[in-house]
Design goal:
Layout (H helix, E strand, L loop, with lengths): L8 H9 L6 E2 L13 E3 H8 L12 E5 L2 E3 L12 E5 L2 E2 L9 E2 L2 E4 L2 E2 L2 E2 L4 E2 L3 E2 L4 E2 L3 E2 L4 E2 L3 E2 L4 E3 L8 E4 L2 E2 L3 E2 L4 E3 L2 E4 L2 E2 L3 E2 L4 E11 L4 E3 L2 E2 L5 E7 L4 E7 L4 E3 L6 E4 L4 E7 L8 E3 L4 E7 L8 E2 L4 E6 L3 H8 L7 H13 L3 H16 L4 H14 L6 H20 L3 E2 L11 H9 L11 E2 L4 H27 L3
Parallel strand pairs: 1-3, 2-4, 3-5, 4-6, 5-8, 7-11, 8-12, 9-13, 10-14, 11-15, 12-16, 13-17, 14-18, 15-19, 16-20, 17-21, 18-22, 19-23, 20-24, 21-25, 22-25, 23-26, 24-27, 25-28, 26-29, 27-29, 28-30, 28-31, 29-32, 31-33, 32-34, 33-35, 34-36
Antiparallel strand pairs: 37-38
């Protein structure tokens, strides 16, 4: 097609360069100002991309433009583009529209624009907005990017609380989503996204205080998901029901809900091969890992939030923190649940630390005791003091030995009177007599043959009563241990 009339010098250069894919450089100033030598109408770019000029054999036709001031809307919505678009250091007066288009590689790097619409976009190559400054919403619902997504160093700002800095739903990205050292003000929505080559947000800031900084519910990430090395989430990072076939890392990150009553990290019902929850400072806000399945969890007591929800969480390995730290870890949920204690006890049992597993079970029952009525709480205190709820039966023998020593001493000093004729009564022995009082049944015949008198009678009554209590507590404790919770 012949060159259309009315082209300015910059447009004419672009029109001529397109068949060979030659880059057209109009200036290095950023952002590009409305200088006549740098102005290019968006409709000229659209016509070139949509086949207005025949390609030249032996060359790869493409629009490669540097330093342009683009007026009008770059509207390729619903179109099919067979050529690469590369805009560098350009200023777009209106938000480009690639909704429901089918394109090759799109690169709008180091550009300035008031938004971007890629809803339903299907790109055979990658989409790059790296280094761009976007004062408006970036939309990519249902987009399919076969060559990946690049938004490294991108800055997106949205002031309307009803809108998102990056809005998508059902986004599919092959090769990988690289969004490193970017800044989003207004929140990022990746609900239902599928990142087949990983998600890398190292050093990125998501700023939406008191609201959702990231909504990635039901997202699937193949390979690593890196929210690390300077990543900062100001607002809630929601990953509910997401799946990570690799590492989910918050190493050296910052998680701050900016509201103590909100979640800083909502990661319930997720699946992950490994979770590295080790930000550079204590998490500010609640964290939920409820009903998640994670093979390996690596964290540290220094970063745990004040409130941590772990009910339903299952894991294979824990790294970081000592035993006492893990007891405090499961106790950070204000609502008591048995399962976190059971899971921790099972893990210690699985790695051969049965003694620590018993201590976890004991801590579970003590935590549960605080929520019982006064009568039940008193009985639980008795079980704890006497037999450790059955997990420390040696306590009962310790009490028994102490009481036996007291009884032996008392009845040696204050011998009971005989209540049987000489020919029928056995020889008195203070130790055996004390044993007979402590054991709930008359085993040795001493209790039925001798009767204490004076103040020693009250000692005898106390030993009988204590013996019954110890026996009952031991039976109750052992029964509690053997039966399922």
């Amino acid at each position: 097609m012949a060159e259309p009339p009315g082209l300015n010098d910059a447009e004419r250069r672009l029109w001529t360069a397109f068949p060979t894919g030659t880059a057209v450089v109009l200036g290095d100033e950023r952002p590009a100002g409305p200088h006549p030598d740098r102005m290019v109408r968006a409709e000229v770019i659209c016509r070139l991309l949509l086949g207005a000029v025949e390609t030249r054999p032996g060359f790869v036709a493409a629009v490669r433009l540097h330093g342009a001031y683009i007026i009008g809307r770059l509207d390729i919505s619903g179109g099919s583009v067979a050529h690469e678009l590369r805009l560098e250091n350009c200023r777009l007066v209106e938000a480009p529209d690639f909704s429901n288009a089918q394109t090759r590689q799109l690169r709008l790097s180091d550009c300035t624009m008031p938004g971007f619409d890629g809803g339903g976009l299907r790109a055979d190559g990658y989409l790059s907005l790296s280094g761009s400054v976007i004062d408006g919403e970036v939309r990519m619902p249902r987009a399919q990017l076969a060559g990946g997504l690049r938004m490294n160093g991108t800055k997106v700002t949205v002031t309307d609380p009803a809108r998102w800095a990056l809005f998508s739903g059902g986004l599919v990205v092959d090769v990988g989503a690289f969004i490193r050292n970017a800044e989003f003000t207004g929140g990022v929505r990746l609900v239902g996204a599928r990142m087949n080559g990983g998600l890398f947000m190292d050093g990125t800031t998501l700023r939406n205080p008191g609201r959702l900084a990231l909504d990635a519910e039901n997202m699937v990430v193949e390979d690593a998901a890196e929210f690390s090395n300077g990543f900062r989430g100001e607002g809630t990072v929601r990953l509910r029901n997401a799946r990570f076939d690799g590492i989910l890392s918050f190493s050296k990150a910052t998680l701050d809900s900016c509201d103590p009553g909100r979640m800083a990290l909502h990661a319930s019902h997720i699946q992950a091969d490994e979770l590295i929850l080790w930000p550079q400072e204590k998490i500010k806000g609640r964290v939920s890992l409820s009903y998640s399945r994670i093979a390996v969890i690596m964290d540290h007591p220094d970063i745990w939030p004040d409130e941590l929800w772990l009910n339903g969480l299952t894991y294979e390995t824990l790294r970081g923190g000592m035993f006492q730290d893990r007891l405090r870890w499961v106790a950070r949920d204000e609502q008591f649940h048995l399962q976190p204690y059971e899971q921790l006890a099972n893990w210690y049992h699985g790695i051969g630390h049965d003694d620590l597993a018993r201590k976890v079970q004991l801590a579970k029952l003590r935590a549960r005791r605080r929520r019982l009525n006064p009568v039940a709480r008193g009985w639980n205190h008795l079980l704890d003091w006497t037999v450790g709820y059955g997990y420390r039966p040696w306590l009962a023998f310790m009490w028994f030995a102490v009481l036996l020593a007291i009884g032996t001493t008392v009845f040696t000093l204050e011998r009971p009177a005989s209540i049987k004729p000489p020919e029928e009564r056995p020889m008195f022995h203070a130790l055996v007599y004390s044993l007979d009082l402590l054991i709930p049944i008359d085993t040795f015949g001493q209790q039925s043959s001798f009767d204490p008198h004076g103040w020693s009678r009250w000692v005898a009554y106390s030993l009988v009563a204590t013996g019954w209590v110890l026996a009952t507590a031991l039976i109750a404790g052992v029964t509690r241990v053997l039966r399922p919770n």
